[in-house]
Amino acid sequence: MHQSSLRLLRMVDDGRPFSKDFKDIFSTLIVSLLPLSAHRVRLTKVEYTFLSQDAISNLMYLKFSQSNRLPDPKDPSRIINTTTAITFSMSKDVARSICQCFINARLIESADGKDQQVYTIKGSIWQLTPKGITILDRFCARNGIQQNQVSELANLKATRLVVLERDSQTDKLHYDQGTIEVVFRRLVGADSCNAMSIMTAADSTSMLEYRHSITEVKTTAELKVNGKTYRDTFTGKAIIDWLMNYSTIMEEREAVAVATLFMTYNLIESVTKDRAYTFQNPDAGNNIFHFSKHAIYQLTQRAKDLINGSSSPRRSPEREHYTSYQRKGIFKDSNTQRLDKILRDPSVRLLFREQSRDTYCEENLTFYQDVDEFIRNSKVVTRAARRELNMTTKAGINDSITQAYRIYHAFLAAGSPCELNIDHQLRNSLITRMTKAVSQDATMIDTLEEVISLFEEAQDVVFKLMASDLVPKFLSNPKYQQQFRSYYFGAVGKGPERG
């Protein structure tokens, strides 16, 4: 059977598609361009590159298909082939605009080593950045795409990204203080062997400097400003470069917002401001972060205490609530309760994802969150369709079923690239339902409700698996012990509402 749907891409204010779609479009485009060839730049050939016009042509009519061949549970001699097709169609101008967004997001860069910030349709040669390679590699792993070039690129240049979560409805980053502090610790290298990457100059003019496993912001060991000596300083540009290159932030204004919160939460302070930047941004106020190589910053005492583990625990109202219950002894500790707490806190969830990735179990958390979003959206759609079945609600039902197939092919189908460990009976029920053809509109509503129920069962299985296997390893990992001091994992509330 074949399942497809048509919907408009949701866009953020600056014209970039929502982050999830944006990364899928980028990865699908690069897969369509494979194998990347060598192109001559001046007097040398640069491997793994592509031409501007080739990317534009492919992007205008982009298609990604995912197929799965499964034996029929009722008749093993019969093979059922299911295919999910995703097609992106756009005008030439929109395609060029999205390619420009790829540059802005630091996913591609000019192959000639110059800091080219404008995507020209003709004559330019481009290559993937380490960030772009990492996103491509994750996309291919999730969708079962096996390409030798992707593996070669990942081995050569892939980097480690801080995966920041976004609101599924607005695509805005989570800016809670806990998450900002986790990002800051990564930025200054507090959780790695070296405290910081020392350079004679903290200004980075090329992304090439960030490629050789440098995972901390660049700092200047000693700097004199107006006769006073400052140690371990860094420029505003260096901080933004790090955030853009080593996290899933997709635009510079998001990076500036995060850097501004570093100041708000008293983690960095200004040594000297860029007067030209202040003149160009007169309405920014005194606390705005200066994205400039002439603006100098240093760590605050609070930041040093945070890095050294001597800062007082930061407690949100929710954490205080749980702590008070702990004192009264009302809640009983369990790993399922601890996992519920982890999944509710964006900053702890970020660390939990890192642990899951390090232990090759990230697909469990990704599946859980994807299904959570699917269930929430699909229940809204089915309620609307039950009230009135029209073109809008039909499109919503179709889109939800397509989303279900994507999750099914990625995580639940036998032999899927990120196949999860669920029981045989549940897997057979899923195969039976997902391989059954659906054509009538009324039947589609019933089908979606049945799929929701089965996905809820699978989600519960994965939740218990994470609680029993991943949570104990996570909480006992020495890497995170310092950050756990301000958390209490024993007392939690109810799980996510699904109604």
Automatic annotation (TrEMBL):
InterPro entries: DEP_dom, RGS, RGS1/SST2-like_Fungal-DR, RGS_sf, RGS_subdomain_2, WH-like_DNA-bd_sf, WH_DNA-bd_sf. CDD domains: DEP_RGS7-like, RGS_FLBA. The keyword Methyltransferase does not apply. The keyword Repeat does not apply. Residues 338-484 form the RGS domain. Keywords: Signal transduction inhibitor. Residues 307-327 are annotated as: Disordered. It holds the Pfam family DEP. Residues 229-293 form the DEP domain. GO terms for biological process: intracellular signal transduction; negative regulation of signal transduction. PANTHER family: DOUBLE HIT, ISOFORM B, REGULATOR OF G PROTEIN SIGNALING. This is Related to developmental regulator flbA. It comes from Fusarium oxysporum (Fusarium vascular wilt).
